[in-house]
Structure formats: structure tokens, C-alpha cells
Write a structure and sequence with these properties.
Strand order of the largest sheet: 1-2-3-4-5
Number of domains: 1
Order of helices and strands: HHHEEEEE
Helix content: 25-40%
Distance between the termini: 14 Å
Strand content: 15-25%
């Protein structure tokens, strides 16, 4: 880990009301995007990664409307992801709403972990492990100087 800011358990928990709200929207927007993409794909007008909200000239009006809506939702998603990152956490998985904050346990660097739907930050994982190896925060040691 780099020498960027470390977070306490209290600081991470203070961010949760905002994160909960943001992830509620993110998960809804992602669901709408999936549905809209499938609809456009079935019509033969699925958006491509390198396109910038372009509507093909031969697109029917409903496709043009759906593509405009799709790109507006993509922009909404980007904005909400940026808002999540501004809280100081690192997004690990948008589908589950999993985020990490840098923290210390004794002299070790760790990641505090929260997933959407959890009432508070109750888990952490080591610097070199992922979320699948989360452990209870009750096992954290007080940070010490290096």
C-alpha cells in the first residue's frame, strides 16, 4: 500500500449513510442499464464502447429515445461512482456494493471492508487478500507507529 491516508473504523462508518444512498442509486441504474442494453441489442442497435451517445441514422424513434436514455444513465452512473470515490474508499465490486478503506492493524496495512446492506463496517481483510477472506474488525489491533 502507498502512504495515502488511513481511515479509522469510526471514519469509515461515518461515510455509510452517504454510501448507502449512493449504492441504492448505482444498483438501480445498473439494473436499468442492463435492461435497456438488452432491449437495444434485441433491436440490433446495442451501444458500443467506443460510441459517444451517437444514434445511428437508420434508428427508429423508439431506439433513438432508448439510446439517449442509455447514455444519460451511463453518465449518472459515472457521477455516482465518482461520488463514492470522493468518500475516500476504493470500490471493489459495483454489483455487490463492496468498498474498502485503508486502515492499520498494529503495524500492518489492512483494508476495512463494507458491502451494501451491512449496517456498519464489521470486517477487514489483509493487504494482499481479497474480500472473500474478510475477518471481523474485533480482531484488529490498535495502530502503532512504524
Amino acid at each position: 500500500m502507498s502512504s495515502e491516508s488511513y481511515f479509522t473504523l469510526r471514519q469509515a462508518n461515518e461515510a455509510l449513510p452517504r454510501l448507502h444512498h449512493l449504492f441504492m442509486t448505482i444498483l438501480q441504474v445498473r439494473g436499468l442499464l442492463r435492461s435497456l442494453y438488452e432491449k437495444l441489442d434485441d433491436a440490433g442497435f446495442a451501444p458500443e464502447e467506443d460510441e459517444e451517445d451517437e444514434v445511428p441514422e437508420d434508428a427508429p424513434p423508439d431506439v433513438a429515445r432508448d439510446r439517449a436514455r442509455f447514455y444519460a444513465l451511463v453518465e449518472t452512473l459515472r457521477e455516482h461512482v465518482e461520488d463514492v470515490q470522493e468518500t475516500g474508499c476504493v470500490i471493489r465490486d459495483l454489483d455487490t456494493g463492496s468498498v474498502d478503506w485503508r486502515a492499520r492493524s498494529g503495524q500492518d496495512d489492512v483494508w476495512l471492508n463494507w458491502q451494501f446492506g451491512e449496517p456498519e463496517v464489521k470486517f477487514y481483510h489483509d493487504e494482499y487478500t481479497d474480500v472473500s477472506e474478510r475477518r471481523p474488525v474485533s480482531e484488529l489491533e490498535a495502530p502503532s507507529e512504524r
